[in-house]
Amino acid sequence: MDSRPQRLREARIAKGFETAAAAADAFGWNRNTYASNENGNAAFSYRRAKEYAAAFGVRPEWLYDSAGPMRPTAEPGYVPIIGRVGANPDGVVLFATGQDAGDLAPIPPGGTDKAVALRVVGHSMRGIADDGALIYFEDQRTPPTPDMLGHVVVVEVDTDEVLVKRLLRGSRGGLFDLESVAGPTRHDARLRWAAHITAIIPPYQARRIIRGVA
């Protein structure tokens, strides 16, 4: 499978739905929207890929970017490395890119099975996490809370980007400024969710604990 629409079709068929319309009806999706996503007439975002992946029982990283195994890992005690961060000064998370896509890392102390990890690439996050480090957070998709203000957190903005930024108050309620470790501050962003960073593993130790997925 070499394209996102093809992988979506494969996931739908593997789940037992003979037609796109049957899948759309089962999960309450708009028939035309889903059909356009599956036939390639309309691209779908990573956020939508997560919804489709959850419905069809596949990994969103595989569905969106052909990264790692199709199915979620069942290996106890490990969580997925879902992407890279720090490869550019904007703090954008690059989902499931590079050779480590699909790799696993141990659940950090105090973490749960909802934990996920990001691998730091480059030196734009120096002072927080060096090149090769792992950043963990709980993938719970909940709104930002007051105790996150002033801290570096993982956020998703309404443009489908996932970022690692310092969270600050915006100009009015419901808006936030996102301060980069290196690079300009993004002002008055609307957030879909925010998550505390729960652990940062230094590069040397990260190299020792990452487990590749065949």
From TrEMBL:
Pfam families: Peptidase_S24 (PF00717). Residues 8-63 form the HTH cro/C1-type domain. GO terms for molecular function: DNA binding. SMART domains: HTH_XRE (SM00530). Gene3D superfamilies: lambda repressor-like DNA-binding domains, Umud Fragment, subunit A. This is Peptidase S24. It comes from Phenylobacterium deserti.
